[in-house]
């Protein structure tokens, strides 16, 4: 770990504190929005991580666990719960018979689109996103 030797200015501390505050506010907003649409925050994060995976609309459980920063075991449990709710589906991985691919269902996509629109509006409102 690298430590800064020169004292930091008050402006730097204020900037970092404000940044953390805005992240926390957005996360609080996001968690409440997910719950208001019948999802847990983790379920919403899972849907977004699958649909937003770079270059494709499916992921392996291992990739998903990395994106969500949870253990593989916890991720499989979350996938199971989302699958039971009809939000995602598993399909065989044609490149690896030991693995499956996770995709968002039409039902999951409908909820995700609604939540994503709400989140984009909040980001615009807070001026963190410029069109």
Automatic annotation (TrEMBL):
What InterPro entries does its record include? HTH_MarR-typ, MarR/SlyA-like, WH-like_DNA-bd_sf, WH_DNA-bd_sf
Quick one: a GO biological-process term for this protein?
A: response to stress
Molecular function terms, GO-annotated:
DNA binding; DNA-binding transcription factor activity
Which ranges carry the HTH marR-type domain?
A: 9-131
UniProt keyword terms in alphabetical order: DNA-binding
**Leader sequence residues:** none
- UniProt-listed PANTHER family: HTH-TYPE TRANSCRIPTIONAL REPRESSOR YETL, TRANSCRIPTIONAL REGULATOR, MARR FAMILY
The name this protein carries in UniProt is: MarR family transcriptional regulator
Q: Which organism is it from?
A: Bacillus gobiensis
């Amino acid at each position: 770990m690298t430590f800064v030797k020169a004292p930091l200015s008050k402006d730097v501390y204020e900037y970092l504190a404000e940044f953390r505050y805005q992240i926390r506010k957005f996360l609080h907003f996001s968690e409440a929005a997910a719950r208001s649409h019948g999802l847990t925050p983790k379920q919403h994060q899972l849907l977004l991580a699958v649909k937003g995976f770079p270059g494709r609309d499916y992921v392996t459980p291992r990739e998903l666990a990395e994106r969500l920063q949870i253990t593989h075991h916890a991720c499989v449990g979350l996938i199971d719960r989302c699958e039971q709710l009809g939000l995602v589906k598993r399909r065989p991985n044609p490149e690896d018979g030991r693995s499956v691919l996770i995709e968002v269902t039409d039902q999951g996509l409908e909820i995700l689109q609604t939540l994503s629109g709400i989140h984009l509006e909040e980001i615009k409102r807070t001026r963190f996103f410029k069109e």
